[in-house]
Amino acid sequence: MSYETIHQIIAVLIPSCICFFAAKGIIHYFQLESYQFPGYYHTLNRNPVHSYLPGVCAANASVLLILLLPNPAKFQQNSAPAYFWVRSVPFVIIAGLLGVLIARFLTVKKAKKPFVFTGRIKRLYVVYALVLLGISAIVYHLPGWKWISMLWPLLLPAVVALAGLLAWPVEKLISELYFRDARRKLLSNPNLTRIGLTGSYGKTTVKHILGAILSEKYPTLITPASFNTPMGVTRAIRERLTPSYQIFVGEMGARHVGDIKEMCRLVKPTIGIITSVGPQHLETFKSIERVAKTKYELIDALPQEDSRSYFYDDGSYCLEMYKKTTKTKTLCGRNPDTCDVWCDQVTVSPEGTSFMLHIKNKGQIQCQTRLLGDHSVQNILLAAAVASDLKLTLKQIAHGIEKLQPVKNRLELMKNPGGFTIINDAFNSNPIGAKAALEVLRQFPGRRIIITPGMVELGDQEAEYNRIFGTQMKGCADVAIIIGKNRATPILDGLKESGFDEANIYRVDSLDDSTKLLHTIVQPGDTVLYENDLPDHYQEA
After folding, report:
1. Binning pLDDT at 50, 70 and 90, where does residue 178 land?
2. Cα 308 from Cα 313, distance rounded (Å)
């Protein structure tokens, strides 16, 4: 093998070695977007520094190392090629170390959802390595290979996407095998009642409420945390479902039309609950009508006989769904003339919520819960309706309601040693939930402070929803700390438009900055609402 050939092989391998390690942060974004390509590209554009700069740095490092490679022309013809290999191979090792450094400095620090080396990520890395080797082989045979070697790392995000695309068929096959195994396990128990629930918001809360109430009578398994994707629910079934359970509750999330239909292919529910329909994930759905269509896939999937569906009377999309279905159905709400399950005498305080629960043909019972907010009652009504049809008594239902604990990061009440109260509503805010959280804050005594970065995934209407959010803070909060740069602008506009005291409006760049500011202004007796905490791929650089 000639010196020129060795030199060329090492030169084309250098950028691949750098890029293998430098792409860690980009692959992390791909993981955060659940390996969905539209979301991945949106994330890249929202985070240009962490997305495109690794490729720029990799290209510059490639230029430097390739130019520093030993020049084959300076070696004597009688010198052993092995010596040239020895002089050249360390450059590949240095390339890998530079890739590690690029990843270290250009990957999000203290990620809220850290990079996890799952089985899927390991397989992706194998495919990614093969793609890099393939690029090196192609570049080796091209005229102008040296300049191409120096420049192709600029396309690093696209190379990661190519690896993801090539890995997709394998992942689809693996997920289908797991999927079928979970479905077999789920359907093998003829005595298991399968419940599916979905909605734009309230899914996780209703799931926990339903699990707590049904556990008063039945061994009940709910999908953990926010496991609401096909693979998340598949994993929960395969790892946690045992023959002892009598009820399975599967939360069903969706970001695209058809997602709920796929979830129902797994769960095969006989009971369906739609918690809400609203402006959530508009970045992918584009319109609320498409959101509603997707949520209704749950009702379509229910068998015509021996099934039951549950809706809350929102006066809008959920009510229309209720009217549309011909399957056995239950409507929950506030109007005793139209609803099967309703409530009245609702009293909300910082200690929780009390109300009178009414179930048609079953009677009524006084209920007390630690959950905050009038909208929490909506979630409880849906769960109570299901529990009643599953033969729980009113006393069992009321006892389950009394035992309810706030779901983590969803209007979770926390006492601070500094003498002030924190309402943690940091999980995935939306226009309806944010308004309800403000209403909860309004009912607390003393000075009220809101800390928020606003809302995301609202598509073209995002700025307008955030502006309205800003206007709604007037009368509910006394101090507003807004986090962010571009996204903060419409919220600030709404605050000023509403006449909010501008001396009590603050804008900071990050959550850490908001914490530092809070400690300088908070006083004993204050109440602080944390409304939303954006994930890493929605942070503004």
Report:
1. very high
2. 16
